[in-house]
Amino acid sequence: MSVAFRRESDEEHLEPKVDLPIPPGPNLVTARGLALTQAKVAALEAALAATTDEAALEKVKRPLKYWRTRLATAQPMPVPDGDAVTFGCTVSFRLNGAERTIHIVGDDEADPAAGYIAFSAPLARAMMAAEAGEAVDFAGKVDAIEIVAIRPIEDSSANG
Question: What percent of the chain has pLDDT over 70?
Fold first, then answer.
C-alpha cells in the first residue's frame, strides 16, 4: 500500500511535547522576581491539584516544570547601591534625544512594555557599569546613551 493512503493517527498532528527553553546563563532575580516566580509555582501547583482531566494536566505540567526549575536555580541578588548601572537598578537615560527609564531585572521578570528589561538584553548590557552623567556606546553608535540617574529598583517601587 502506498504511503499516501495510510491513515495517520491524530497524535501525529499534535504539537511535540518538549520542555520550555531555559534562558542561558545565571538565573539572577530581584526580590520582586523571586516573589513572582514563587507565585507562579504556587498557582500552577494549585491548578495541578485541582485538575483531573488528562489534557488539562498536560497543559499544566510543562510550565510547572519550567517554573519549578527557575525557582530552584534562582539566585537572589542584593539591592545595589545605585552608584553604577547594575542588576537591580532603575536607570533613567537619554537615547536619540528622548529620556526613558528602565528597570534591569532577571530574564523571567522582564516585561519590556512595562519598562522591565532583562540584564541580558543588549540595551542593559550596553549600560552595565556606567555611572550617572556618563555616555555609552549602543547599536554601533558612539556615546548613543547618556545615563541621567541610577537608583535601586526598590526606590522606584515606592514612588510608583
Answer: 84
Cell of 100: 526613558
Tally Cβ neighbours within 10 Å of residue 71. Answer: 17
Q: How far apart are CA 138 and CA 56, in angstroms?
A: 45
**What pLDDT, in 10s, does the model give residues 111-130?**
999 999 999 999 999 999 99
Instruction: Measure the CA angle with vertex 70, ends 69 and 71; round to 5°.
Output: 90
Distance CA 96, CA 77 (A): 31
| 3-class SS of residue 48 | helix
Among the listed residues 103, 99, 106, the one whose alpha carbon sits nearest the alpha carbon of residue 114: 103
Q: What mean pLDDT is reported for the chain?
A: 89
DSSP letter, residue 27: -
Pick from 30, 126, 134: which is nearest to 83 by CA?
A: 134
In this predicted model, what pLDDT tens digit does every residue of 131-152 receive, in sequence order? 999 999 999 999 999 999 999 9
